[in-house]
Amino acid sequence: MIAPFILFIFLGGIWLKAFTIVISIFGLYEFYNALKEKKFNPISIGGYALLIIFYLRGNNFEEAMYILILSTILLLIIPVVNLKYNFIDVSLTLLGFLYVAILFSFIPIVNNKVGGQYLVWLIFLGSWIADTTAYYCGKYLGKRKLCPEISPKKTIAGSVGGFLGSTIGCGIYGIIIGINVPEVQTIHFFLIGGLCGIMGQLGDLVASSVKRYVGIKDYSNLIPGHGGILDRFDSILFNAVVVFYYLTFIVGI
């Protein structure tokens, strides 16, 4: 799953968006399936329909809001006409859409920015480098646990290593490709890397807290050796938002 995704990042445009839709559907399926372990009953078909409509029609913020508001109203009506569902089910259906579909959508949005074919890699480099450096720092230096109740294997040393790795890695990437995106000064790559090093780890912990609550180890076994889509992309979901907001409101592109 990771190798094809790298290919689609290179292709960009409609190809990246199409692949993002596919993994969003799988991710939403995993999220709803996890909730069923706790006997919740999300309105899955409504969530999938909302996801597809959002990706096909939500081309700007205004349209996206119209879709979300109308869909919320329609979903709220369902427990009234079908007693199989309740308003908690509606809330969790919308939560899944927001957590999976909306956050994944920031990947093609960043790709569509000026120089997006270079900047979109920050989302993934910030996650992958942080994961790698956190693992090795935690393995060789980690003694004190970070959040043992949520993720017993994570250590403070690993967390610091992930932050530093992401900061330095994204900064070096910025130095290498900076000539292709003159709108973004080199310092911003380091800052984005630092933010990704923090938010990506929080995304990881959020996914772990959900799994711990519902009592599962992995969201699925779709990716051999890595679990499911949400297991592999948990930090990427948060970092996609970080990169978009930073480029939009700090850099101004």
UniProtKB/TrEMBL annotation:
Q: Pfam families given for it?
A: CTP_transf_1
Major subcellular location class: membrane
Keywords in UniProt for this one?
Cell membrane, Lipid biosynthesis, Lipid metabolism, Membrane, Nucleotidyltransferase, Phospholipid biosynthesis, Phospholipid metabolism, Transferase, Transmembrane, Transmembrane helix
Cellular component, GO annotation = plasma membrane
User: Coiled coil where?
Assistant: none
The EC category is transferase
Q: Which InterPro entries match?
A: PC_trans
What PROSITE patterns does the annotation carry? CDS
Q: Name one GO molecular function term.
A: phosphatidate cytidylyltransferase activity
Q: Name one GO biological process term.
A: CDP-diacylglycerol biosynthetic process
Q: Which residues cross the membrane?
A: 6-28, 40-58, 64-83, 90-110, 116-136, 156-181, 187-207, 236-252
Enzyme Commission no: 2.7.7.41
Tell me the membrane topology, using the record's own terms.
Answer: Multi-pass membrane protein
The compartments listed are:
Cell membrane
Q: Which family does it belong to?
A: Belongs to the CDS family.
Please state what the protein is called: Phosphatidate cytidylyltransferase
Organism annotation:
bioreactor metagenome
The gene coding this protein: cdsA_3
